[in-house]
Amino acid sequence: MNTKNPTNSSTPRLITIAVSHYCEKARWALDWLKIPYVEENHAPPFNRFHTRLHGGTTVPLLVTEGGNFVDSTDILHYLDSISPQSHRLYPINPLQRQEVDKLEDLFDRQLGVSTRCWVYFYVLDRPKLVQNVWCMGVPKLEQVGCAIAFPLLRNMVRKAFNSTSEGAARSLSKIKEIFAKVEKRLEGQKYLVGDSFTAADLTFAALSAPVIRPAEHPIMSSEFRGLPEEMLNVIQELRSTPAGKYALHLYREMRETR
Ligand SMILES: N[C@@H](CCC(=O)N[C@@H](CS)C(=O)NCC(=O)O)C(=O)O
Fold first, then answer.
1. How many angstroms is it from 124 CA to the middle of ligand 1?
2. Residue where one domain finishes, among candidates 87, 119, 141
3. Which of 24, 50, 53, 166 has a CA between 20 and 30 Å from the CA of residue 91?
4. What angle do CA 172, 206, 118 make, to 5 degrees?
5. C-alpha 194 to ligand 1 mean position (Å)
């Protein structure tokens, strides 16, 4: 559990697997909107005990006095609704709002799924590396349980996310296709929608993070060590594209941490 900030029982609680890019999306929104929170890290599969307890399945899950939010997009909608107009992540203009919703949905359903599949294909055969990132900030008992269950978990993850060589190749094409779309949208524009930073930009950068590895990422930045060369070459290639540069720029300029 991360208890950097003073808290009381009404402080929202963000249940995460620390390294998850969907969790980073919710964490970034909380930091950006300057909402105090406590982050509670769990390792797979233990996250499920805690999410089920609060009416969800996956992480991130935000527990608040006003209810529990069980999906990253629902979390952003809720946080936006309690934030001052000046800092909001969703535009008031209905057409721009529609665009943001559409892009966020595309990134959630396709980009996040593809970056995860591609990364797991390269790292699942490195048990130490994966266990280290899955177990960041988790209770000792979960660390032990995760290490014992790792061979089983690895097979489940490989199957669930289709992290085979064909799956990884398909995912990389999808990532490139979405990066090209983002590049096109950014022609002559500072942000993906309108003239301010929105949930579309935040979601794009957070869900791209596993394949561009921004130095400002609060969790992932030091995880270059031990990665296969073939993987690093693609990361360098993606970082040098206009969309990759945009995600790196957003991390540099907009990723305020607590
Ligand atoms: N649509 C969900 C996706 C979240 C998701 O896929 N979370 C993964 C981590 S990247 C997870 O919870 N995995 C562990 C599990 O399924 O128990 C969201 O945006 O919140």
1. 17
2. 87
3. 24
4. 25
5. 29
- Regarding pTM above 0.70, the answer is yes
Asked if the structure places residue 7 within a domain, the reply is no
Tokens representing residue 67 in the block? 């209810």
Which numbered atom of ligand 1 lies nearest the CA of 160? 16
Quick one: 151 and 220 in the same domain?
A: yes
Instruction: Tell me if 8 is assigned to some domain.
Output: no
What CATH number is given to the structural domain containing 66? 3.40.30.10
- Taking the centre of ligand 1 as the mean of its atom positions, its distance from the CA of residue 23, in whole angstroms, is 8
Which residue lies with its CA nearest to atom 2 of ligand 1? 71
CA angle 63, 220, 12 (to 5 degrees): 15
How far does residue 1's CA lie from ligand 1's centre (Å)?
19
Q: For residue 38, give the 3-state DSSP assignment.
A: strand
Contact residues of ligand 1, CB 6 A cut-off: 17, 20, 22, 44, 47-48, 58-60, 71-73, 108, 116
Q: How far is the CA of 188 from the centre of ligand 1 (A)?
A: 34
Tens-level pLDDT at each residue, the chain (258 residues): 343 444 567 899 999 999 999 999 999 999 999 999 999 999 999 999 999 999 999 999 999 998 999 999 999 999 999 999 888 999 999 999 999 999 999 999 999 999 999 999 999 999 999 999 999 999 999 999 999 999 999 999 999 999 999 999 999 999 999 999 999 999 999 999 999 999 999 999 999 999 999 999 999 865 577 789 999 999 999 999 999 999 999 999 999 776
Strands 67-69 and 61-64: antiparallel
Domain extent at residue 50 = 13-87
Alpha-carbon distance 187 to 176, whole Å? 17
Q: Is residue 118 part of a domain?
A: yes
Q: Hey, which residues does 67 pair with through a beta bridge?
A: 64
Q: Are residues 104 and 223 in the same domain?
A: yes
40 and 115 belong to one structural domain:
no
